[in-house]
Each structure stands twice: as structure tokens, then as C-alpha cells.
Specification:
The chain is mostly helical and 127 residues long. The protein has one domain (5-120). 80% of the residues lie in helices and 0% in strands. The protein has 5 helices and no strands. It has helices spanning 5-29, 36-59, 63-86, 91-115, 123-126.
């Protein structure tokens, strides 16, 4: 059975965002040990981020308000799933920086997918 290009790109984007989360966490929190539990937390956070951002902004039709809500939710998810164990003491600031790096990377990946590859990320999957 052949997978549609949207699903393949969705999985690819989750893995790329997972790597970006790892790099951002390593830069901000100085976390350098990767265990299976830490990798699972990164994967779950990346999956939620890749679904949450387009869903809040485009699919629910909230526009910029949806983007702000998605950013706030992403900060909370990162704060309690990733940063709680990797923190140097400033959990909120670290979470905001990691969420900002992640959000910008999702926009770049989605822009490349739409403009260069003509792939609609999550548009065909959820809408």
C-alpha cells in the first residue's frame, strides 16, 4: 500500500522538528544526554507542535490569534515535557526560547513544502 506524499512529509516534518527541539534544548539548557525517555519526550513534543501550529492557525480559522494560542500552548508543553528535567533554573525563559526556535522552524518547513514542493502539510490530513 502506497502512502500519500502528505503523510510522508508529515512524518518527515515531525522528525525534523524533533531534531530542532533537541538542538534548541541543547543550546538553551545545555542538555547533552539522550536517553530513550528523553527521545520519546522530544518525539511527543514535536508531534504535538507539528499538529498544533497549523491546526490553530489555519484549520480552525483563528489566524494570528490562533498562532499566539499555539505559541502559548507550545511554551507550556515544552516547559512541562522537556525543560522540567533539563533546566538550568530559568524554566519559563528557556521554554520560550525553545518554543520560538521550534515555531520559526515549523514555518520555514511548511513554507518550503508549500512553495517549492507543492505539499500541503496537514491540510489534506486534518481538513
Amino acid at each position: 500500500m502506497e502512502m500519500p506524499i502528505d503523510w510522508i512529509f508529515f512524518l518527515f516534518e515531525v522528525v525534523i522538528v524533533m531534531i530542532i527541539l533537541y538542538v534548541a534544548t541543547r543550546i538553551v539548557c545545555k542538555e547533552d544526554i539522550v536517553s530513550a525517555a528523553y527521545a520519546l519526550r522530544l518525539f511527543v513534543t514535536a508531534l504535538l507542535a507539528v499538529v498544533l501550529v497549523p491546526m490553530m492557525q489555519n484549520i480552525l480559522g483563528l489566524g494570528i490569534i490562533g498562532l499566539l494560542i499555539a505559541f502559548f500552548l507550545l511554551v507550556l508543553i515544552i516547559r512541562y515535557v522537556i525543560v522540567s528535567e533539563a533546566s538550568l533554573g530559568e524554566e519559563v525563559i528557556e521554554s520560550i526560547l525553545i518554543a520560538l526556535i521550534t515555531l520559526i522552524s515549523i514555518f520555514i518547513i511548511n513554507y518550503i513544502a508549500k512553495e517549492l514542493l507543492d505539499v500541503t502539510v496537514l491540510g489534506g490530513l486534518l481538513g
